[in-house]
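[[Per-residue structure]]
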Amino acid sequence: MHTRTDRLTAARVDAALNIAASHGVFAGARALFQLGLPLDFARRVLLHPSRRRA
């Protein structure tokens, strides 16, 4: 697993994971998309944890 050096994106991913845990994957993906991150990125980090950077 690669370590993420972009701390802002890492914080956004952590927030989206918390949103997804409490409100569902769609809500987490929507949050990332609204923050300007590509939908394919949101799908990868929320649906494929093994492919997510630490």
Residues 17 and 28 are 6 Å apart (CA to CA). DSSP finds three helices and no strands in the chain. The chain has a mean pLDDT of 86.
